[in-house]
What does this fold into?
Amino acid sequence: MTFDLFDNLDDATPATPPSEPLADGAVVLRGIARPDAEALLADVHAITIAAPWRHMITPGGLKMSVAMTNCGHAGWVTDAGGYRYDPIDPLSGQLWPAMPASFRHLATTAAAQAGFAGFEPDACLINRYEPGTRLSLHQDRDERDFNAPIVSVSLGLPAIFLFGGMRRADPPQRVRLAHGDVVVWGGPSRLAFHGVAPLADGDHPLLGRLRINLTFRKAL
Ligand code: SIN
Ligand code: FE2
It folds into this structure.
């Protein structure tokens, strides 16, 4: 005789983490980055030693309130010349730091769970938000190939993610993203407008008053 039945009743952890559909091709995978968070943040720290946080300038001349850096074969940059992916960090004149295995593994796993098997990111934009920082509605469309999805990992303070439609004027859904949540959008949602509402103040056990977002793309 065994007590397997009772063991199972005791186990509150579902076998597959809950996923919440946002739209056709878009899903929130709740908490899937949580077990890896400390390793991911150690890797972010190492990246920012070689490629420090910076506030980039939009083509229109405005300084972005989100601080950014990148890793991988290409980094997303903006300056007076426009938006682009560049294999070189303009601040250091060196290649961007390599994408850590922890990043690649999470991005590939999350994409597969969202129905995009075989995702191989070559670029990761790393965003840092302080209280009050926002990211206005935009499309990710500087990548060469829109067949690959976008995988976006939230760490630290919670944020309200704005997920709109194909037109800027489409009213966005407001989705609360907490530490460890991952959003994947691709297929018919690949060019959906999205953004982040001004970050509310708070105190996160790992990141204090910060939110860090990792956005994986196939850029090249
Ligand atoms: C982005 O669109 O690049 C970032 C989204 C986020 O911070 O959640
Ligand atoms: Fe984006």
Observations:
- The first helix runs from residue 4 to 10.
- The pocket of succinic acid (ligand 1) is lined by residues 125, 127, 135, 152, 161, 194, 196, 213, 215 (CB under 6 Å).
